[in-house]
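Handout, page 2. Input:
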Amino acid sequence: MAHLLPKLSYTYDALEPYIDAKTMEIHHSKHHQTYTDKFNAALEKHPELFEKAPQDLLKDTSKIPEDIRQAVINHGGGYVNHNLFWEFLRPGQENNTPQGALLEAINKSFTSFENFKTIFTNEASLKFGSGWTWLCKKASEEKLVIISTSNQDSPLSQGLTPIMTIDIWEHAYYLKHQNRRPEYIENWWKVANWAKAEELLKQA
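Output:
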């Protein structure tokens, strides 16, 4: 069965003024839709792969048939990465910081939330080209790690479980912020969905 563009749990304008409605609309209905369509088109060459969860395909890309492997990495990655990205956003909150087990894990891994925020911001700001910055958990370790991936590469392919991510492709921010990526990142912190991140940490 073909994969579908997920519906958002909020309206396109719900993240204003931090992420503008027009960017959200284009990002979701155009960019994410295109990744969805091209992912499905690749899988149509090997329809038995529709039975596998997209995340499972990305966990071991060596098992993907060679003729569609890069298309699945690119478009399947774009499909899965954006599915996560939308869930990591919510309308802006006063004093938007993690709580509970997530805050404990961040403090343990990065000494403090403020230090984590500085490291994550720097990583996302300095990432060259298009890609993503992630907070992840290694299966065999208690500590959390911050990594960046290029294009639509997924941390799942590195044996990591995503806990939170920010999209740093220009299409995620250019209409509002032009080339000012650090400004976009600062606004993103205002709408980061820490409850979702804590849920994924517990599942990990």
